[in-house]
Amino acid sequence: MTVSADDRVAIAELLARHGHLFDDGELDRLDLLFTASVSYDVTAFGGGVLRGIEAIRSAALDVGDRNPVGHHVTNVVGAPPMWVAWSLLPDACQNDDPCRQLVVDEIWRALRVIEDADLIGEFDRVQAQIAPWIAMDPRRPYSDDAVSAGQTAMRAFIAGRRTYLEGAIAPPSE
C-alpha cells in the first residue's frame, strides 16, 4: 500500500486540526477528526482506550483545565502513525480481510521506519537539549514533576509501540 502525497497532506492537516480543536476546546466538532467507531488509546496517560466520540469528549471534559495545551506534530514520516491509520480505517475495510491486512501491513512498515530512525535516541537527545530551557522558563504553568511525568509517558509510548502493536493487531503478512 502506497501513501500518496495527497494522503500525506490530508493526514498532516488532520493531525493539525486535532491539536487546534482540542486546544480550543471545540469538543463538539470531534466528528471532523474521528469516525463514530473510533478507538482512542490514551493508556500511556492513564486513560485506557476510549471508544466512540462521546467517550473522548467526556474524558476531555473530565480532565478540564489539566488538559495539556500546545499539541504539535513535527513530521508525518513515511506512512500514517498507527493511531491515525486505525482511526481512519473505514468501517467497510474492517470487515474486509484483504483490505484490513493491507492497513495492518502498512502499520508494521511504518513501525520499521520509526524504529530505523531511532526515535528513542532522538528523544533522549532532544530531552537533554531542552532541559535547561524548560527549567529557565518563568512563565511555565507546570511543575518540574509534570514535565518529568509527561516526558516519561512520551518515552514509554515511543518505546512501547512494538509491544502494543503485537497485542493489538495481526502480524504483517510478509
Task: Give the arrangement of secondary structure elements.
Layout: H1 5-23, E1 39-41, E2 49-51, H2 53-63, H3 82-88, H4 91-94, H5 97-116, H6 119-136, H7 144-159, H8 161-168
Antiparallel strand pairs: 1-2
Helix pairs in contact: 6-7
Task: Describe this entry's structure for a reader.
The chain is mainly alpha-helical. About 60% of the residues lie in helices and about 5% in strands. The chain has eight helices and two strands. It has a two-stranded antiparallel sheet with strand order 1-2. Strand 1 and strand 2 form a beta hairpin. Helix 6 packs antiparallel against helix 7. The longest helix has 20 residues. The relative contact order is 0.11.
**Rough outline:** globular
Oligomer class: single chain
**Main sheet record:** 2 strands, antiparallel
Secondary-structure element sequence?
Answer: HEEHHHHHHH
Helix content: 55-70%
Low-confidence stretches: 72-91
Q: What is the count of distinct domains?
A: 1
What is the straight-line distance between the termini? 13 Å
- Number of helical segments with 4 or more residues: 8
Q: Which band does the percent of strand residues land in?
A: under 5%
Give the mean pLDDT: 76
Rg measurement, Å: 17 Å
Which strand order spans the largest sheet, edge to edge or round the barrel? 1-2
List how many beta strands DSSP finds.
Answer: 2
Main structural class: mainly alpha
